[in-house]
Every structure is written in C-alpha cells, then in structure tokens.
Amino acid sequence: MNDNPPNLGTIMRALRDRFGWTLKDMSKHSGIPFSTLSKVENGRLTLSYDKLQQVSQRLKIPMSELFAMPSEGREAQVTGRRSIGRTSDAVRVTTPNYDYYYLNTELRRKRMIPIITKIRAKSLEEFGELVRHKGEEVVYVITGSIEVHTEFYDPVVIKEGELIYIDSSMGHAYLVAEGCEEAITLGVCSADDEALAQDLMSLLGESAAVS
User: Fold this and answer.
1) Nearest to 118 by CA among 142, 135, 136
2) pTM (2 d.p.)
3) Based on the number of CB atoms within 10 Å of its own CB, is 2 exposed (0-12), middle (13-18) or buried (19 or more)?
4) Between β-strands 91-94 and 156-159, what pairing exists: parallel, antiparallel or unpaired?
5) What is the secondary structure of 38-84 as a DSSP string?
6) Cα–Cα distance between 152 and 159 in angstroms, integer?
7) Strand partners, 141
8) Alpha-carbon distance 182 to 171, whole Å?
9) Which residues contact 76 (CB under 8 A, 6 or more apart)?
10) Which of 36, 47, 103, 134 could join 51 via S-S bond, C-beta 3.0 to 4.6 A?
C-alpha cells in the first residue's frame, strides 16, 4: 500500500520537474496562472476538467499522466502486471453528480480504467447532457440501485448485484434510482488504444475537481 497516494499537486510538481521548468515556465506553457499552479502544488486548490484538458493539450501529454506519478527512467518491458486497488490510494474526483475514485493509478498506459463511483444525481435535468467517450464499459452496482439512461434505449433500473455493459460512445447517464439517496458502483472502462483516460475524462464534466 502506498503511504502517500498521488494527488494532483504532487503529480503536477513531478511533471514540472520532469520538464525542468519553474512555476513561471509551467504557467507559460500550460496557460494556467502562476498563482493557481502554486496553490495546486501546495494542495490548496484543484483544477476543473476544462483546465486539466487545457494542460493535457498544451503540454501534449495524455490526460492519464495527470492521474499517475511519472515513472523514473525508462519504463521496463514486462509481460504482465499486477496492482491491488484500494480506495485509500485512489485519486478522487468530485463532481455535482458523482464522486469518482480512480483505482490502480500507479499503472500507466492502462487499457482498462477501474473506478468506484458514488452516484447522487436523481434526474436528467440535474445530470445534464449525456456523456460519450471511446470504448466500452461495464458497471456493477455494489449498493443501492441505479437508473441508466442511454441514447438508443429506454431507461433501465440496475439493482444491487446486477451489472450493465454498454458501448461508451453511445450517450449515457447513471442516476440514482427512485427510493435511493445514493448508489455505489464499480465501473471498468476500456478501449483499444492507450489514450483511454483522456477520453474518459469527458465523463466528469467541466465542474470536476481532483484531490
């Protein structure tokens, strides 16, 4: 178990160190104000989804690098990997609709992204626009029940102990089913390319914050 799970501040600092930049350099290249970067690195502020996307695009790095500590030196070539996921080590992303816990963040270039999610939104009006991203996903309900809205199907209720498998490029939204205050799910998203995390972040919406 990692005694110091990654957070956005340490990840941004490690990324800046990798480029050999000062905070002023990082601000210039990323377009994020100097004062904002300083607060992020010191754990006093987080970045919204659109700002994370801006950093990814301007620095020409995958979004996944903002969710895992950069590796030191050349990455070893291996035939298999193993990682134990714990919520205490997860990168937490909070939005009005969800609390996401991104697991196994020490593994880079994953083609599957496991996520524990606490779902709070109870209506499409509250949720907002349906989300879409590359790949496929499976969502298993751990506690409570959820109502799944998709672009091409009628809404369906998935109860505790059940799961749903969908094409992620189809518009979709997960809501708390009637009678529940909150539901907890385990989701696994996958795609046939290594830039999955960058597209997956579209799930979060522009109000997301990372801790």
Assistant:
1) 142
2) 0.60
3) exposed
4) unpaired
5) HHHHTTS----HHHHHHHHHHHT--GGGGGSPPPSSSPPP-S-----
6) 21
7) 185
8) 22
9) none
10) 47
Measure the CA–CA gap between 189 and 186, rounded to whole angstroms.
10
- Contact between residue 119 and residue 184 where contact means Cβ atoms under 8 Å apart: yes
Residue 156: phi and psi, rounded to 5, are -135, 145
pLDDT of residue 211: 52
Amino acid at 102: Y
Determine the Cα–Cα distance for residues 184 and 26; give it in Å rounded to an integer.
Answer: 37
Maximum alpha-carbon separation in the chain: 53
Q: pLDDT tens-digit profile of 64-123? A: 777 765 555 444 454 467 888 888 888 888 888 888 888 888 777 777 889 999 999 999
Residue 148 has pLDDT above 60, yes or no: yes
